[in-house]
Each structure stands twice: as C-alpha cells, then as structure tokens.
Write a structure and sequence with these properties.
Strand content of chain A: 15-25%
Structural class of chain A: alpha/beta
Radius of gyration of chain B: 22 Å
Largest sheet of chain A: 5 strands, mixed
Order of helices and strands of chain B: EHEHEHEHEHEEHEHHHHHEEEHHHHHHHH
Strand order of the largest sheet of chain A: 1-7-4-2-3
Radius of gyration of chain A: 20 Å
Strand content of chain B: 5-15%
Number of helices of chain B: 19
Oligomer: heterodimer
Strand order of the largest sheet of chain B: 3-2-1-4-5-6-7-8
Largest sheet of chain B: 8 strands, mixed
Order of helices and strands of chain A: EHHEHHEHEHHHHHEEEHEHHEHHHHEE
Largest interface: A-B, 25 and 29 residues
Distance between the termini of chain B: 45 Å
Chain lengths: 416, 432
C-alpha cells in the first residue's frame, strides 16, 4: 500500500477567545491554514499549480458550526478565506469530537489511491460564541439526543460520570482510590500543558490538592462524581495538518518525514447503556475502543511495546482512565497500576498527553483529532519544544466522538 | 532560592491580596497576610483564593495584624510591602519590621514607581536584600513582574530572585533600573498621558470618547487608553504621571503634564471605576455609558464615533486581514487617522528609547507591554507596520524630530530583533 506522509502543520493558540477578539471563522481559518502552509513552505502559487493538476484537496473536520456560528457548507467555506483555494476539492467531515479524524482518514484514502498528492486537513471549532450551558446543549447532540441529551443540563459530563460509575462497578474498584487516580490524570494533563505554548491552561494554577478536592466553590461537581477539574475545556481553535503522497515526498521534500503507519475506526452502539449491556461479558468496558487500537496495531504491524508516546481523548478523566487498557498499557481493570506507578507521566515509560490533552491543552471539538495528529508529528520529528518526549519513534492517538461511540486511532512513526 | 514563608504588609489592598494568592499558589509558600485587623485579613484571604480560582491555597494563608509583626517577620524568607504609595508610611513600617528581619530574608516593595534606592536606606546593612518587585493588576492574568535593584552589590541575589520569580511564580520578569515608574508604567502612562492631553486639545470634537475611539481596541489593546486610566484610578494615574514629570528631564517630559480637567475630576471625588465615576461612568439601571465632556464640564452620553478608516480596519481585522487593515491606516490621511498613526509611532519610538535607558534588553518593552498592559507591544507593532524601514518612513512623515531621532539612532535600531517574540495578531481586536 502507498505510504501517507505528514509534512507538518500548525495549531492556533488555544488560549485565544476569538469572540472576545471580535473575529470570525474566516480569521481563524486564514491564520491557521497559512501558518501551516508557511510551516511546510507551500506558497499560494504552489497551491494553484497543484490544483491545476487536480492534485490537492481539503478535508475539513468540524462538529457543529451550524449551532455555534450559524454556518454550514464548511468545505466550501474555505473559498471565502482566499481566492487561491478556488476550485480545490473540499468537503466537511463530521463525527462529533472525532470529526477531524474522519477528515484525516478520508484524506489518507485519497492519497493512498493516488487521487491527490497533497491533502490539507483542517479541524476547527469556535465554542466561545455561547455560554457553557448553551454549548453543553449543542454538544449533547453527539449522544442520542432524544434519550440522552434533550432537556438535560450538561449531558456529556453526566454520561462520562456514568462511565466512571460503571468502571468502579465492573472492576470492583475502591471508589476513593479510583477518584484519586482520576485526579492524578487531571493533574498530569494540567502539568503537561504548562510546557506547551499553545495550551489553553498553560498559565492556570492547578495543584494536586485542588484536583483531589471535589465539591467546593472553585472545583464544583459537574456531573455524578466528576468535578470541574475532571473535564476538558471549552475552547476556540483550529489545527491544520498537511499530508502527502510518496511520489510528492520523493520529488519535493528532502528531509525525513513521518508516515501514518496504521489506523483503526470502530463505531460502538451510540446509546451509553447499550454499550454497557453489550460489554457485560467482555473484559473491556469499551470493547470497540479497544478493537480500534488492535486494528491500528495490526495495520501498523506494531504492538504497544513499540509506542513511545500517546495522545488520548481525555474529554473527561474517566475516558483517559479506560484508554490506558485499550492502548494495551495495562490489562483491563488494572489501569490504576499505570497511573500509580507513574508509567503515564511525562517522564514515564508510556507518557500520555505530553501536550496536556483535552483537559490541559484544550478541546475545540472539531479540531482535537487533527491537533493530536500534529502533536504526534511533532513528537516523532523532535520538534515539540518543551514538551518533547526524548527519542520518540512511534506515537499513537485515540480520538473519540460521543460517549466513546466513534473511535479513531492513528499510529504515526518514523520510517524504518 | 527557597522561599517557604512570606509576609505581606498591606494585604488588604488590591495588589496585596492578589500577590498573596500568587505566593500561596505558584510559590507554594506559607503566607502571612498583615492588615490592621483580623477581619480585613480574612476577607483578603477569601479574595486571594478567588483570584487564583483554587480553594486549595486557602490553608496556606494565615490572617494576621500589625501586632503580629515580630512573629511573622522572624519566620519570613520574603517580606513583601504593599502599602499605599506614601514614602513616609512605607518607611514607618520598615522601621517596625527591621529588628526582626532574618539576615538573608528578601525584602520587597510593590511600589509602582517610587525610588527603590531611597526606600532601601531604611535598612542599612540589610539594604542589599531590598528590591522592587512590581506586579500588575490582576497578577494572575497579567504576568509582568518588574524586578528593580538599587545597587550592583545585589547582582548575585537578584539573579536568584529573578529565577525564583520566573520559574516558581510563573512571572514574566523584566529587570529595570531604579528609574521613575520603571518600564511598563513609564511607557503605558506616556500613552495615557498623551491621550489625556489629546482629549483636551480635541475637546471641540468631543474629547475623551473621541480620542478613545481613535485609539480603540483595533489598534492592539483590550481597553482604550482613557478607559485604562479609569480602571487604574485617576488619583493613581495622576500620581504616576506627576511623579514621572517631576523626576525626569528629557525631551518627552512635557507629555507628562496633566490638563486641569483631570484635577477637577479628582477633587470632585470622581476617581474612576472604583468610585463609580471618572472619565466615564455607567448608569447601571439603564445600562448607558456616560463620558465627561471637557467643554461643558459635565457628563453626557458617550458618542459612538464612526470613522471611515477605523470602520474599514475593523472589518479587515474581523476577517483576519491584518496586513490590509494596517495598509488602510497607513494610506488614510484624515485628521483622525493621522492622529492614530502619530500615537502608534510615538509609542514605538518612546518605548525604544526608554527601554534602552532602563533595561539591558530592548525586547523588555515587548514583555512589559504585552504582559503588563495586554497592549500590542512596540516591536510587534513594528512587525504589523511592515518592519522598521516602514516605521522610519512613516515617522519622517508624521512625527517631530525628537521622535525621528530615536528611530534613526543606529544604536537602538541595531539592537532590534528581526521579529518580536509576540505574535501581533491576537492583540488586534475587531472592535473599538
């Protein structure tokens, strides 16, 4: 099969509030896309030339711009950004918070089958146009809305709090110890974010007492057992990643570039209770999330032993907890070992989310998959700056949509 | 440098309590908050917790009064004085703490501009441990921290303290000489003072709101200069500006002369946001914004001025067309656009000349203005204007000689980095 290379890209500063700056989605896209093109040295003229040969395309990941900014037709929207994009094939891909992973996957297909040489993947979301309650309602549409979202305040924290309850029940965990583990996950993410100059929370003060101290004024309960520090952020942001074909790489790029070695894409039953029912007799609480990881390992012909760095979908601490066994870092039900032994720490054997993840770096939902892929690119090309994991050769990401309904996994690594 | 215990003197002031929060959180220090009464200190602790949004630091802060000076100071590795800007008041408390200071304790004043050398005299042999540590309000959001020394004997300790402030307290540290208003306020209040003067000069056109519109958020700030003066307080604004006027003697001294209307407002008790009225006031019932009309000496409804150049710039910034936006300004020679250009160019020139005088690093002006005022910093402003050559060309067209000479000074220009470390884009807001 033809290889898919990652040439580079750019992430916006997730600290920014574009509504407060008075700017629209066009400003967001313009800054981000041209930052990415500058990063890889592609000019407007190059874009036009590639398009003359019909060898370039856009793949846009966005969850729910129709609600946040009253805008649809988000592939075509790029033509408003710059006239050099006229005529370029462009479409929007959606799978809730895994939207930009679907866009990446579609881009990979079109590169692998030699339709295009260059694929520009753009994930974005503007979420600060409304308050968090209204936004929480929009996000509820990633669940089966009629049953799990309608009329419920902050539906997603409640769903992932149920995942926490189910995890305790299924593996017969001590509740106090489990919550301490979740606090540790939060703390690691916030601490990692301090090294990342694009992270939303990089200047926040969060300590180990605060993440362990739920139910107070500055760390209130948001849903079930989960408090504010267990939740990812409401974020404005975009990430562009540029992929290319073997042919393009050979003829145009001298330096080493990593490739996408494998992927997994599995869709679990949308309704959370159905997930639990289905997994009753399975050792994994989220078997389809696990399966997506297995598929990616299989396609890459790698195992967990080969992975030096992980980026996971910590939309809540309870989702990072279960991801640990899905990756294969521990057996299911033994995730606490990896947390308590420091294995997932920044300087641990299997670091998770050196970027800070969705909790620390931020979670503009439609951008998160692309952001993870860009972070893996940075890690394996030794360009992650202060959050660089030493000698990272292969990295793996898990991006989920809904209550772990759409599960997307990619493995990125240096060529052998 | 290990700072385990900190005492804050004057902990009920806005800066005092916020800084207590910074030491208790990032610094992980035990912090004594000293005020005139336990009740005041307790309220200050509540507000410090709120300021860093973390209940976890509450137990690190202990309410105390000035009766507890002996106990607190004896234990403290760092004593932070945050009293009001009154040299005699400060010296009085220095006398009280002096007998109990540990020989290696750091002593700091949070003064926003008084002479550190003068204040240090109270400490005799311990004066080498005395520093100016000037933070900005609110310090959780604005990370600028000016570190001021008064003697070369402090160099080694200052280096340690700088590391502590930067690494442990998460501050953007700028080292400055012991000069009036240090760096951030010297530049910031140059702009504010100039805006105050321009409001007077242009009172026929409307004055205060007219000038703030010309220098609105689209020029790279979250708050227009005269709104900033209200936010800081007109009394504080006046004291800083007067202090610079009295203690400097350069070509730009005349900028720091305040027109009468400021004194009138202050003597009427209209100090700005804290007293409800200042240059502006908000009618909370009707949610209407009023502004002081310099011509008629009374408040009137704020006018929503619309200028062609600024409307067009805002449209472009909204869409992320920053280069087009600045081109509109450069090409527009309406009275308002020229005023706007002059102010931005004077800001650049003044920033550069002051920075090389008070700091060893020219890029300090960018740290100061970006992280102390949230203004588009001067070197990033040069980037937006298309580079220093463009700036010089524009300066020759619009500025007087005392500013042109700065920009033609090779010693200054040579020091400029190729590009600011700050991206100008987030500073430019698509609004007034």
């Amino acid at each position: 099969m033809n290889k898919v290379y990652i040439l580079g890209g750019a992430q916006t500063d997730f600290q920014r509030n574009w509504t407060k700056e008075g700017k629209n989605v066009i400003a967001l896209l313009r800054e981000n896309i041209f930052d990415a093109l500058n990063n890889i040295g592609l000019s407007k003229k190059d874009i036009i030339e590639l398009n003359k040969k019909n060898k370039i395309a856009f793949f846009v990941g966005n969850f729910i711009g129709e609600n946040y900014i009253d805008q649809g037709h988000l592939g075509a929207l790029l033509t408003v950004v710059d006239s050099c994009f006229y005529g370029i094939p462009s479409a929007r891909y959606e799978a809730a918070c895994a939207s930009s992973s679907v866009a990446i996957d579609a881009a990979c297909s079109k590169i692998r089958d030699n339709t295009y040489d260059v694929a520009i993947v753009i994930g974005w979301e503007l979420m600060k146009t409304v308050d968090s309650k209204i936004g929480g309602g929009f996000l509820g549409k990633a669940a089966y809305f009629e049953k799990e979202g309608k009329g419920i305040e902050f539906p997603f924290p409640k769903l992932f709090a149920k995942l926490a309850d189910e995890t305790i029940k299924k593996y017969n965990l001590d509740e106090g110890r489990y919550l301490t583990n979740l606090s540790r996950i939060a703390y690691i993410n916030y601490s990692n974010a301090k090294r990342n100059r694009f992270a939303q929370t990089r200047n926040w003060y969060i300590d180990e007492i605060q993440v362990n101290n739920r139910k107070n004024k500055t760390n209130p309960i948001i849903g079930g057992k989960l408090a504010l520090t267990d939740c990812s952020q409401v974020t404005d942001g975009a990430t562009t990643v540029v992929l290319c074909s073997e042919n393009y790489k050979k003829n145009n790029v001298k330096e080493e570039k990593p490739i996408i070695k494998g992927f997994g894409h599995r869709v679990a039953p949308m309704i959370l209770e159905e997930k639990f029912k289905e997994s009753e007799h399975n050792e994994y609480i989220l078997p389809w999330t696990r399966q997506a990881c297995i598929d990616a390992y299989f396609r890459a012909n790698l195992s967990v032993d080969d992975i030096d760095v992980f980026e996971t979908h910590d939309c809540f601490t309870s989702s990072e907890y279960v991801a640990i066994s899905c990756f294969g870092i521990t057996k299911p039900g033994k995730e606490f070992e990896a947390i308590e032994k420091g294995i997932i720490n920044f300087d641990g054997k299997k670091p998770i989310n050196p970027s800070g993840g969705l909790i620390g770096c931020g979670h503009p939902v439609g951008a998160s998959g692309a952001r993870m892929l860009l972070d893996l690119y940075k890690q394996v090309t030794n360009t992650a700056g202060e959050y660089q994991i030493q000698n990272a050769k292969n990295g793996m990401m898990l991006n989920i949509g809904g209550s772990a309904t759409t599960n997307y996994v990619f493995i990125v690594g240096k060529e052998d | 440098m290990e700072i385990k215990t900190v005492s804050i003197l004057g902990a009920n002031g806005i800066m005092g309590k916020n800084i207590a929060g910074i030491f208790a959180s990032f610094g992980k220090a035990k912090v004594y908050l000293l005020t005139r009464s336990i009740e005041k200190s307790e309220v200050a602790i509540d507000q410090a917790v709120e300021s860093v949004r973390s209940e976890s630091i509450r137990n690190k802060m202990i309410p105390k009064t000035y009766d507890d000076i002996e106990e607190c100071i004896k234990e403290s590795d760092l004593v932070f004085e945050s009293l009001s800007e009154d040299i005699e008041l400060k010296k009085q408390i220095y006398k009280k703490i002096k007998p109990y200071l540990k020989s290696n304790s750091v002593i700091a004043t949070g003064t926003s501009g008084l002479s550190i050398k003068e204040l240090s005299k109270e400490f005799d042999s311990l004066s080498k441990n005395f520093f100016g540590i000037h933070m900005f309000n609110p310090p959780y959001v604005l990370t600028l921290c000016e570190l001021i020394t008064h003697s070369q004997k402090q160099d080694a300790l200052a280096k340690e303290l700088e590391n502590y402030l930067h690494i442990k307290l998460n501050r953007t540290v700028v080292r400055t000489k012991d000069t009036p208003a240090f760096l951030g306020n010297r530049i910031g209040f140059f702009v504010i003072s100039r805006a105050i003067q321009l409001a007077k000069e242009n009172y026929e056109q409307g004055g205060i709101d007219y000038i703030d519109t010309i220098l609105g958020s689209f020029t790279g700030r979250s708050m227009a200069p005269l709104v900033t003066a209200d936010f800081v307080g007109l009394d504080v604004t006046k004291s800083i500006i007067d202090y610079i006027k009295e203690n400097t003697n350069d070509d730009y001294n005349k900028i720091f002369k305040l027109p009468d209307y400021i004194n009138c407002l202050i003597s009427d008790g209209n100090m700005g946001k804290k007293s409800g009225k200042g240059l502006y006031f908000k009618d909370n019932d009707k949610k209407q914004l009023f502004v002081y009309d310099i011509k008629n000496k009374e408040y009137r409804l704020k006018i929503n001025y619309q200028f062609y150049f600024s409307n067009e710039m805002i449209k472009e910034i909204k869409n992320g067309n920053y280069e087009t936006a600045i081109k509109i300004l450069i090409d527009d020679d309406s009275y308002e656009a020229v005023l706007c250009k002059k102010m931005l160019l004077e800001y650049i020139a003044y920033s550069l000349t002051i920075t090389i005088q008070v700091s060893s690093n020219i890029e300090a002006c960018d740290d100061a203005m970006a992280t102390g005022f949230s203004w588009l910093p001067p070197i990033a402003m040069i980037d937006w204007l298309g580079g220093i050559d463009n700036v010089i060309k524009l300066a020759k067209k619009y500025l007087s000689n005392e500013y042109i000479s700065i920009l033609e000074n090779k010693k200054i220009i040579e020091k400029l980095p190729h590009k600011s470390k700050y991206d100008y884009r987030p500073f430019l807001k698509a609004k007034y």
